[in-house]
Design brief:
- The structure is a single chain.
- This protein has 372 residues and is of the alpha+beta class.
- Helix content is 42%, strand content 26%.
- The chain has ten helices and 17 strands.
- The protein is elongated.
- It starts with a helix and ends with a helix.
């Protein structure tokens, strides 16, 4: 009998623990939709660019409803409440939140009870006011006022994300658009804001899909920013400049390679197949076309400079050889959108050519086209 009591007590404890754990993975909304008694509502979780159904609700005679949303710990979610196919309110929720949500059928809403939810409510209402103001000015044909309104709003959003850099409320703010889906954060240098916000948010929410989304966006924007900077600084050339040390540690520029056709070649000396590619494919082509005006600017993405130099010497590679010890993190690889090695571009008389080459046969075709 005593053993049975112990077993019962253990089972009861386990059941209680499971219930507490289940409760801890939720957030509650106590909501009211004014002038919408006995109405059907649909609740969704924002899932990337899609919506995931979590519940279908019905308001009571006073328009009230309750919603328990599944929210994992340290992983805030955006819950969207719809009625008749129209979104009434988006709510930012964290595990354990208990918020009060007041809405009407026209899209006005307010949230109380959780700091992050209230902050996002503020940002969303300011965004809706901005959109309405821009639409009004556009319809009135007041371009100057449109421009000023946008600039003022952009500056306020920069202030918002900097002030609240550890809040998930900055994610939708960074993704806001106006007009024909024009991003509010549309400047090239906004890449810096995306990168800083990704760093700040990842320190609080390292596993959030939204942080990963901002990180991805930051990388894409940084790449475009680097290209823009390079193009602006390259007044006399038609491609982003590369300056790296050669075998003698002398800084060597891509733009200074004197040849009719230059092959920009990113490779990795640590990969045996790429070393074979040098000897079996590139060397015969180089020997055939070098006198006709062909040169190779070979960028080794290799942290071990000694290993690179040893490979170049042992293979007796006759073309221009430089090394970027940043390896895969090379800013030049990012600048040229290099996603793997080997990676090849061609410059003809100082300008990019559209021809693509991925292997010996396609490289041969480009050489024959421009040099034969």
């Amino acid at each position: 009998m005593r053993r049975s009591n112990k077993f019962f007590a253990a089972a009861l404890f386990l059941a209680a623990a499971v219930m507490l754990s289940s409760c801890a993975q939720k957030a509650r909304i106590n909501g009211t939709v004014s002038q919408a008694p006995q109405s059907e509502l649909v609740a969704y979780l924002l899932n990337g660019g899609n919506l995931k159904l979590i519940d279908t609700l019905k308001t009571d005679a006073q328009g009230r409803f309750k919603l328990n949303a599944p929210i994992r710990k340290n992983d805030p979610e955006f819950v969207h409440i719809y009625r008749n196919g129209k979104m009434l309110a988006p709510v930012l929720l964290e595990t354990g939140d208990k918020v009060s949500l007041e809405m009407d059928t026209l899209g006005h809403f307010s949230v109380k009870g959780a700091a992050q939810a209230e902050l996002y409510c503020q940002a969303e209402n300011e965004y809706r006011a901005f959109r309405a103001r821009m639409d009004s000015l556009y319809n009135a044909g007041d371009g100057a006022a449109c421009t000023k309104t946008y600039i003022d709003y952009y500056h306020s959003r920069v202030k918002f994300i900097l002030t609240n850099s550890h809040s998930m409320a900055v994610v939708p703010v960074l993704c806001q658009t106006f007009g024909a889906d024009t991003p509010v954060f549309s400047q090239t240098t906004d890449a810096i804001h995306f990168r800083n916000m990704a760093d700040s948010l990842s320190s609080v929410y390292p596993n959030s899909k939204y942080v990963k989304l901002i990180r991805k966006n930051a990388k894409e924007r940084t790449h475009l920013m680097n290209i823009n900077i390079a193009l602006e600084s390259a007044s006399s050339i038609e491609f982003p400049e590369i300056t790296l040390p050669d075998m003698e540690s002398v800084p060597t520029k891509l733009s200074e390679v004197d040849a009719k056709l230059v092959m920009l070649y990113f490779w990795s000396p640590s990969v045996p197949l790429q070393k074979m590619f040098n000897i079996d494919t590139l060397m015969p082509l180089y020997e055939k076309y070098n006198k006709k005006g062909f040169e190779i600017y070979s960028v080794a993405l290799e942290p071990d400079k000694v290993a690179w130099a040893t490979t170049v010497r042992s293979q007796m590679l006759p073309w221009v050889n430089v090394c970027d010890t940043a390896g895969p993190a090379s800013k030049y690889a990012s600048l040229y959108a290099v996603t793997q090695t080997p990676w090849v571009f061609f410059l003809h008389d100082g300008q990019f050519v559209p021809d693509k080459a991925t292997d010996g046969e396609s490289i041969q075709r480009v050489l024959a086209k421009y040099l034969d």
